[in-house]
Structure formats: structure tokens, C-alpha cells
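Instructor's aside before we start: the two examples that follow are unrelated to each other. I chose them only because their records fit on one page, so don't look for a connection. First example below.
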Amino acid sequence: MQYVIDTSILVEISERYYPEVFPSLWDKIYELIENETIVSLVEVQKELDKGKFSKEWGLVHVNSGKKFFKDFEGDEILGIMEIIELDCYTEKFKDKNDQVTTLENEWGIYSEVVADPLLICHGLYHDSTVVTMENPSKGYNIPHVCYELDVRCIGLKEFLMENEFKF
């Protein structure tokens, strides 16, 4: 099984599981990258570039032989069409700032490049599990769209348990 990792997970790991305190966790992360059990996307790396963890995950990518951040592949673009065709793509909901929006506004061609729909497409076309901190009860987001497209989506706790992280 392969897992495709969202920006929110990488930020959460960096904020809570310091390499100096949890070296075995980081060793396990490198092992899973080496086995290509976990990957992320270049678009996630671009999202990280806006924050303070860009350098840290950039080093993980380089130290793993550049196996971690993958380019979006040609066939995966067909998944975008599947997302656009979902009813929830144009339905209104309140975002985290209590503003009315739609996925079309959040992920559409007029927004900045966002990794969310591309992670879902990767999951769809590679039978990967999407791992995110997003809550499915908070409007339309990654878990909701994954459910609509029958793409498996889990949180950090499930990911750590499934991959037998132990300290």
C-alpha cells in the first residue's frame, strides 16, 4: 500500500515530533520513503515553501535520493475532471474563516496552485491512501472529496498505527 502525504501532515510532524527527540520516528519515515510506501507531491513542496518547514522537508527529499516529492503524472490529470464533475465542487460552504466559498473557488483555475486535488488524483490513479489532518466534518475538503471518489483517506493517528510506528 502506498500513502500520499498532505502538507498538513508534514507540518504536524515537524511541529510535534522533533528529530532530536524522536529519532526513531524519522528513521521510520526514511525507511517508508525508501520503500516508496510514502510519497508526497511537488505541489505539496511548493505549499511548504510558504512556511517555516520548507528547508526541513527539502532535506528529507534530498537525503532520500529525491524519492519523496513526486511530479504530477499525465494520467492523473483525468482525476481533475472527475473532481470537477462532483456536485460538491460547486456547492457553497463556509471555510475556516467562516467565509462562503466553493471547492471551485478554492481549487479552481483562478486560485493559487494547491496540492489538495492533485493528492486526490494521485490516490485515485495509484490506489494510494491520502493522509491529511483535514477534518471531514468541516465543509468540503480532501476527506469529503476522497469519499465521493472512493479514495481511501485517513488521518495521522491511523497512518502511524497502520505503519507500526512505536517509541
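Example two begins here.
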Amino acid sequence: MKNVSLLKYDQQLHYEWSSRVLEETDEYVLLYAGPGRTLQHHTRGACYTYDSHALECFMRHEGFTLQLDLEQDGTMRGYSNIGLPPTVTDEEIHFIDLDVDLVAREPGEWQLVDEEEFDINRIRYGYPDALVEQVWHTVAEVKRRIQHQQFPFDGSLEHRLIEIAQEKTSHFR
């Protein structure tokens, strides 16, 4: 298990959860969490419980993540946080969340969200110009990977999540 902490630029804890490590390479860390997982959202002062199966891919050297949620009705949702490359230890992953996200509510249809939050926090936290440029470069890189179906947006993680969910579900029959 690893504890995952997403922080804002000023190092304030945004939200956190725990997931089981499936795979660690020099390029990424892949985590799984099943139905019943909880997420402590410190910014909102709330705790959420999810009924979906989820894979989370943290790219070690890139400023983005990919989270896939397989809902109980079979719907697959994708979410890519844009931020700074994570800090990974044996017990934890820390990721600085820089507000802008790409979301796929339908397979293959990714949409940029939270630009207003980025604009507000750019001023609030004093994002340096180089950081702002890096964020937009990362957004372009994620869109390029999506368009060219390059890892982690190549479909392999979706297939893996479906297999895991089927395996977990069959254990309860």
C-alpha cells in the first residue's frame, strides 16, 4: 500500500487516499483501489467513499497522472491531473496539483477543465512564469499522447482495469 497525497503549490494538503501498488518501474507507479475506497478531501473538509474500481498511474518524470474509474454500471471515466512530477518513497506519493485537469466522461473524449481555478491560484500562490509555461506544455503533451494513443493513454490500462475488476467480482460470486 502507498499513501497518496495531492498538495497545492503552497504545500497545503489538498486530498489523500491509500492504494495498493500493482507495478513500479523507472517510468511510472501504477496503483489499484477497489470499491469502498475513501478519499479525504482536506480542501473541502469532506471524506468520500467510491464504489468504483480505480487505477492510478503516476508518471515519475512527467507532471501528469492518469486515473481510470470503472463504475459499477461498466462506465469508464478518465481523469488526468496536471502538476509537478511526483515524489515517490516506499510508503508515499506526493504530487503537487496545479489545478488544470483533463477529464474523459466518455471514452476518447477528453476535455480541459478547471482553467478558472488555475487562473485564481496562479495569482494566489504566485506561480512563476516558467511554471505557467510548464503547465501548458504538459497539457499539450497529454493531448498529444491521447491523440497518438501513447502510454498511459494507449488503452492498456483500461483493459487491465477491466480484467482486475472482473477478477475481483468473480471472487464474490
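The mean pLDDT is 94.
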